[in-house]
UniProtKB/TrEMBL annotation:
PROSITE patterns: UBIH (PS01304). GO terms for molecular function: 2-methoxy-6-polyprenolphenol 4-hydroxylase activity; 4-hydroxy-3-all-trans-polyprenylbenzoate oxygenase activity; FAD binding; oxidoreductase activity, acting on paired donors, with incorporation or reduction of molecular oxygen, reduced flavin or flavoprotein as one donor, and incorporation of one atom of oxygen. The keyword Membrane applies. It catalyses: a 2-methoxy-6-(all-trans-polyprenyl)phenol + 2 reduced [2Fe-2S]-[ferredoxin] + O2 + 2 H(+) = a 2-methoxy-6-(all-trans-polyprenyl)benzene-1,4-diol + 2 oxidized [2Fe-2S]-[ferredoxin] + H2O; a 4-hydroxy-3-(all-trans-polyprenyl)benzoate + 2 reduced [2Fe-2S]-[ferredoxin] + O2 + 2 H(+) = a 3,4-dihydroxy-5-(all-trans-polyprenyl)benzoate + 2 oxidized [2Fe-2S]-[ferredoxin] + H2O. Its EC number is 1.14.15.45, 1.14.15.46. This is Ubiquinone biosynthesis monooxygenase COQ6, mitochondrial. It is found in: Mitochondrion inner membrane. Pathway: Cofactor biosynthesis; ubiquinone biosynthesis. Belongs to the UbiH/COQ6 family. One of its GO terms (cellular component) is extrinsic component of mitochondrial inner membrane. It is a peripheral membrane protein. Gene3D superfamilies: FAD/NAD(P)-binding domain. Its cofactor is FAD.
Length: 515
């Protein structure tokens, strides 16, 4: 009870009549305060826990009552301990801008930073024409931006981020922040019954959403935030439509062990007609792979033998798309065994490619390509469908959406998570400002400023990724000629590549609310 009464941000603004309140029973007051929160966040994924950390870390927001609701048991995530030479296949590419935000809110000090691998070099090329672009963060030296260790991005496991954020929440709670983690319960229903007239005594909750949990508890939210994914119940409650479509493509992910004789500090991406394949460095000798391809090929890649899978990944970076198509057709879709020896086919084609080259040319060719994959981590292969979504609005009265609840994009640029973190940063800063100015943080008039700041920027990223996907998902001659010309032209213009990197690295825009 003492903790409840100390929550002045909730208690004081909504006592409409102090004497009337005193006449109410202690049980009635306790019940109102116990179940009423300034902010209720639905969803304990990276976006949800990051937003909770940001609010709990803020001097102006930390005394608000905040609830984070998650259906899963997060105890195992909080207690996650990294295992040497074993990586989760759920990995994100975080920009320096996103990492700077995590540092600002106190999350990075709880991360296993030896598992946050920064890389400065990225090589992208067209699998049909061979046109390429080489991005090196060293190009930004002298540009006026302080880029720590010339890092383009950091590869970090989702578990690493979630675990660190949950530990930071524990730390904030110990320091006096009023934040409750409500886990292992699902949202059964969300409703909002607006009374014609506010109550004459007690807390004025007449237009606050009510979150019904499946354990019978009801939470009242001055501001309800949906960080609950692409099928967001919060978005459905707010009657906000989500527009977009599903791609006829899936992403196959896996953790790869690479040739130890090769350095592993470069991200590699090759655009094939069926979609791009990306190999991103996790540590010396290990990389995370995302291979965008057709659903049928994705099914085959998940189920072929580990030896065949490794050869197919190597072939995807070294062979023509015609040869790759031939290899796919050799795989029986029932038994997932190949009609030919894939290893023999791969080695023969490699020998032909090197036949006319001298030793130096062979070495140059090898270092222009990713390290050979020698092994795939057991049980790390999985797939997921690609979707494009954008909500008609990111806000409604007393409701805001962040991350996948608001938008989803094709992962070819690796910016989905970073866009969600920018949502979180922008919304948190706006709520801090609103609190300092004494505004109602659930008011649609305040929340619209978050929507106007993030909506256009997210649309730009979603649209850019979609156009890139369509541009590279064809081998039609006129299109391949045009994109080849464009890639080579950009590769020869240093300042243009620098501008592309600044945008991709999150240093062109920090997520800060402008006012």
């Amino acid at each position: 009870m003492l903790r409840i009464l100390q929550s002045q941000k909730l208690y004081q603004p909504f006592v409409s009549n102090r004497h009337a309140l005193q006449r109410r029973t202690l049980a009635s007051i306790s019940n109102d305060l116990e179940n009423a929160y300034d902010v209720v966040i639905i969803g304990g994924g990276v976006a949800g826990v990051t937003l909770a950390c940001s609010l709990a870390s803020s001097p102006s927001m930390r005394h608000n009552r905040i609830a984070l609701v998650e259906a899963m048991d997060l105890t195992g995530v909080r207690n996650w301990e990294p295992q040497a030479d074993n990586y989760s296949n759920r990995v994100v590419s975080l920009t320096p801008g996103s990492m700077g935000f995590f540092e600002k809110i106190g999350v990075t000090k709880h991360m296993a930073l030896d598992r946050a691998n920064g890389y400065r070099d990225m090589r992208v090329w067209d699998g049909v024409t061979g046109a390429k672009i080489h991005l090196d963060a060293a190009l930004l030296n002298g540009s006026g931006h302080k880029v720590k260790e010339n890092t383009i991005a950091y590869m970090v496991e989702n578990l690493n981020l979630q675990s660190a954020a949950l530990k930071r929440l524990d730390e904030c709670r110990a320091q006096g922040s009023h934040i409750d983690l409500i886990q292992k319960v699902k949202v059964a229903e969300i409703e909002k019954k607006v009374e014609d007239t506010p109550p004459k005594e007690g807390l004025d909750l007449h237009d606050w959403p009510t979150v019904h949990l499946d354990n019978g508890r009801k939470l009242k939210a001055r501001l309800l935030i949906g960080a609950d994914g692409i099928n967001s119940p919060v978005r459905s409650f707010a009657k906000i439509d989500s527009l977009g479509w599903d791609y006829d493509a899936q992403g196959v992910v896996a953790t790869l062990k690479l040739d130890p004789a090769r350095p592993n500090n470069t991200a590699w991406q090759r655009f094939l007609p069926t979609g791009p394949i990306a190999m991103l460095p996790l540590s010396e000798g290990y990389a995370s792979m995302v291979w965008s391809t057709s659903p049928s090929t994705a099914k085959a890649l998940k189920n072929v033998s580990s030896t065949d899978f490794c050869h197919l990944v190597n072939a995807a970076y070294r062979m023509s798309h015609v040869d790759l198509k031939y290899l796919y057709k050799q795989i029986d879709m029932n038994s997932f065994k190949s009609a030919c020896d894939i290893a023999e086919e791969y080695n023969w084609r490699e020998s032909v490619a090197k036949k006319s080259l001298n030793d130096q040319e062979i070495l140059d060719r090898e270092y222009s390509l990713p390290p050979q994959v020698v092994q795939v981590q057991e049980k790390s292969r999985a797939s997921f469908p690609f979707k494009l979504r954008n909500s008609e609005s990111y806000v409604a009265d007393r409701v805001a959406l962040v991350g996948d609840a608001a938008h989803a994009t094709h992962p070819l640029a690796g910016q989905g998570m970073n866009q969600g973190i920018l949502d979180v940063e922008c919304l948190a800063q706006l709520l801090e400002r609103g609190t300092v100015e004494g505004q109602d943080i659930g008011s649609i008039h305040l929340l619209r400023q978050y929507a106007s700041e993030r909506y256009v920027r997210n649309i730009m990223m979603i649209s850019s990724c979609d156009k890139l996907h369509r541009l590279f998902s064809t081998d039609a001659a006129p299109v391949t000629w045009a994109r080849s010309l464009g890639l080579n032209a950009v590769d020869n213009v240093g300042f243009l590549k620098a501008e592309i990197m600044k945008y991709a690295m999150g240093i062109e825009y920090t997520g800060e609310f402008r006012h």
